[in-house]
Amino acid sequence: MPILNANAVELFSNSVDQSRRLGIQLGSMLQVGDLICLEGDLGTGKTTLMQGIAAGWGSADSVTSPTFVLIKIYERGDESRLAHMDAYRLEGPAEAESLDLDALLSNGPLVVEWAEKIDGALPDERLWLKLFWVEEDRRRFEVTPFGERYEALLEEFQEAVFGLA
Predict the structure, then answer these.
(1) Domain enclosing residue 81, as ranges
(2) pTM for the full model?
């Protein structure tokens, strides 16, 4: 089995600030209906990345993990909404389906922490980020696109992060 999927990209972050900046880059590219799935153990930086995503998307709201409320909605001036879901406490896809994910996606992007717990309830097309703890401040991100929109998004993200043309 390969270490990375053929179309996956591997990124490293050397600090909390760098992880947040990666999120800012990604967040600035998101559109209504985009689905970003975050997978990783506790302490790998999912919420830190989400803080950057929300800031890059245009929200001035403070971002914390919605573990106990399940979903937080962040707004920006144009009336669109960024939904942030934490699936940690969900028992599986059936429980997630009752949260009307389609409605969340129709109002803006959706970012799901612990997405692997509800994978069966999520649309097949999405950008999947798997986060790994490497050292105290160092993290590894494995980014895999599923679908044409997300292949293009990943290419745009790579160009922004690495300065590729």
Answers:
(1) 9-162
(2) 0.91
